[in-house]
Amino acid sequence: MTISTKGEYALRALLELGLRNGESVSLREIAKRWALPEHYLEQVMASLRKSGLVRSKRGAAGGYSLGRPANQITVQEILQILEGPVEPFFCVPEPGKCQFSPACSIRILMHQIKNAVESVLGAVTLADLCQQQKAKQSQPSGMFHI
After folding, report:
1. Is the CB of residue 98 less than 8 Å from the CB of residue 26?
2. More confident of the two residues 28 and 98
3. Strand ranges in the chain using DSSP code E only, listed in sequence order
4. Is 64 in contact with 56 (CB distance < 8 Å)?
5. What are phi and psi of 82, to 5 degrees?
6. How many CA atoms lie within 13 A of 20 on its CB side?
7. DSSP3 helix / strand / coil % (the chain, rounded to 5)
């Protein structure tokens, strides 16, 4: 599975919402903070809104917020909404498409890869990413000013 810009932008936008602790954030703020194209981000957010991962509110105090607590949203769920299921090889979801499938060690390997990727992505929540981001932001930059 290759994660496209759509998946990347969704992860960055949801990370920003998770860091804001329920505060509504405008699309413009998210785009500016993460250097994302606002028009494309709007399309990504529409998909996330349809799935229920985010809520939107119009008006001066409007913007986007998480649809559920960050600890209830896995990276796997986010990416599956935008990228579809993990399918490292064409025969994994549809073994009947390959004449070698019933006795193929490559298919077995690809199925193991699929399971490993899903296991990692399913074990990491948005709350985990937010916690890691906060830890990174609190580390000194290593630069000294005189």
Report:
1. no
2. 28
3. 54-57, 63-66
4. yes
5. -95, -30
6. 19
7. 60, 10, 35
Say whether 55 sits in a helix, a strand or coil.
strand
3-state DSSP assignment of residue 56? strand
pLDDT in tens, 83-141: 988 887 777 777 777 788 778 888 888 889 989 999 999 999 999 999 999 988 777 66
* Residue in 83, 92, 94 with CA at minimum distance from that of residue 116: 92
- Report how far residue 17's alpha carbon sits from residue 8's, in angstroms, rounded to the nearest whole number: 14
- Concatenating the DSSP letter of every residue in 98-134 gives -TTGGG-HHHHHHHHHHHHHHHHHHH-BHHHHHHHHH
Structural domains in the chain, CATH included, are 5-138 (1.10.10.10)
pLDDT at 146 over 60: no
In the block, which residue shows the tokens 């509110």? 57
Sequence-ordered alpha helix ranges (H) in 64-104: 75-83
Is the model more confident about 145 or about 138?
A: 138
Residue 46 belongs to what H/E stretch?
helix 38-51
